[in-house]
Amino acid sequence: MAWYPIGPSSYPDLFGQMQYVNSPSIASQWLSLTRDYAAKFGQDGDRLTPNEGRRTRARQQELYANYLRTGYPVAAFPYTSRHDEATHGNAIDAGVTTANGHNRALTGDEFAWLHEQCELRGFTWTGRFFITPEPWHIEGDTKPPHFPPYPDINVYNAIIHEEEEDMTPTQAQQLADVARAVGSLQSDMNFIKSELTGSGSDQTRLQETVIGIRALTAGDSRLKEALITIRAIAKKLGIPVKEK
Ligand SMILES: [Zn+2]
User: Fold this and answer.
1) Is the pLDDT of residue 209 over 50?
2) How close is the Cα of 134 to the center of ligand 1, in Å?
3) What are 135-161's pLDDT values in tens digits?
4) Alpha carbon of 206 to ligand 1 centroid (Å)
5) Concatenated DSSP letters for 156-210?
6) Which residue segments constitute the domains of the chain, with CATH numbers given?
7) Reduced DSSP (H G I as helix, E B as strand, rest coil) percent helix, strand, coil of the chain, to 5
8) Is residue 79 pLDDT above 90, yes or no?
9) Residue among 66, 59, 116, 118 nearest 90 (CA)
10) Are the beta carbons of 27 and 6 closer than 8 angstroms?
């Protein structure tokens, strides 16, 4: 299945990770919706952003296990979620990223606007039907849109800021794959950075982090790259790193 980028999340546990949906029409209508939002509510630099689009099965399992354990937040049984990577992938949880990069929920006025405007772009606010209603949960390609996407919206330009008009579908897919890897690497690096900048013994923390990353690197070239990068950073900072 091909996946189409809709911008990175600023939601705490997905911070910096590119989000995806399963159709280019949903992606281009969502990006058009974010432009509609900017015109209406974006005076202070607030942007409509996806808290989450496609959800991996591993993450859904995790969320469901957490729900069984704590009762909150409510999560669908694995494989039945509309965010599911294999069966659906047309759902988006809407959030707002402020000018300083923080995540917040939409206000009441913004939700009311979203629920009307998204319908004009082929989405349905299906979160209203949940047992615990979710004002942020909408699903695309669920009805004929009243408006076409803005003509200059290109789902690939959302992440690679270059004109790529001559791309074949294969090239476009490769580009999306690279962007996905970069988004994921960025979030790995954010995590590593947060591990390194805490208080305590930086040296010990760094060594533990490197050991932890090494344990994860088997078969994952992105994490291997992250490890090389972090070793280079450590060297620059003059922090010794154990080889084994
Ligand atoms: Zn949702």
Assistant:
1) yes
2) 7
3) 999 999 999 999 999 988 866 544 433
4) 36
5) TTTTS-S--TT--HHHHHHHHHHHHHHHHHHHHHHHHHHHHSSSS-HHHHHHHHH
6) 4-54+89-159 (3.30.1380), 181-237 (no CATH)
7) 45, 10, 40
8) no
9) 118
10) yes
